[in-house]
Task: inverse folding
């Protein structure tokens, strides 16, 4: 009887040990699964952080683009008058610029003025007067740094005495009225004088004609 009791106890202890081993194995497996899930969760959190940062960057970029488009729209003016129809923009912000009709006024060397001088602060943004394509750049001579804009309205527009070009002022770039293409300056024979752009309008790319009316309509309505 004693031997049977001992055998029963040994069997029970063996079963308990097996159960303990099985429980320990289950706990180890559960611990590994939990660790794997924590690692997966951390990876997902890191991926989410990257996605959130990318979304924030895209949102900021979209807001910047929207603000830029709104600013350009604010600069645009729908014009419908004899000889000038479409969307136009003042070459500089009207509040900081001034100009008058000096077409044909005498200049040095017996020349006559063949444009309108639009005065504004040094480095002020200079805008496309209408939609079109930046046709070419020139530098040196009387004009200094200059840009030609081939307008969709058939006019070739000439801006000169610039300080430099904006990114949208690159040759070949398509622009809309009010896009920032250059910076106001005093290059060429304007050096040392009041910063301004000498502005010309050339219908069909030919000889210059008085641009004052176009400018007045675009800037003041």
Result:
């Amino acid at each position: 009887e004693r031997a049977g009791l001992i055998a029963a106890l040994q069997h029970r202890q063996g079963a308990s040990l097996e159960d303990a081993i099985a429980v320990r194995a289950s706990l180890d497996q559960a611990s590994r699964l939990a660790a794997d899930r924590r690692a997966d969760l951390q990876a997902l959190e890191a991926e989410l952080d990257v996605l959130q940062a990318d979304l924030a960057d895209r949102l900021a970029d979209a807001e910047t683009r929207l603000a830029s488009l709104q600013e350009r729209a604010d600069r645009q003016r729908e014009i419908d008058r004899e000889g000038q129809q479409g969307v136009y923009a003042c070459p500089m912000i009207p509040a900081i610029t001034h100009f008058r009709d000096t077409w044909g006024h005498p200049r040095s060397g017996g020349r006559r003025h063949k444009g309108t001088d639009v005065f504004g602060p040094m480095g002020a943004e200079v805008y496309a007067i209408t939609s079109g394509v930046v046709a070419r750049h020139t530098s040196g001579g009387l004009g200094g740094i200059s840009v030609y804009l081939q307008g969709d309205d058939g006019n070739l527009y000439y801006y000169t005495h610039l300080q430099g070009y904006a990114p949208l002022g690159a040759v070949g770039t398509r622009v809309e009225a009010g896009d920032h293409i250059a910076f106001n300056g005093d290059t060429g024979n304007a050096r040392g004088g009041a910063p301004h752009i000498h502005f010309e309008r050339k219908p069909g790319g030919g000889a210059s004609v008085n641009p004052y009316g176009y400018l007045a309509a675009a800037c003041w309505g």
In short: The first strand starts at residue 76 and ends at 81. Residues 2-75 form the longest helix (74 residues).
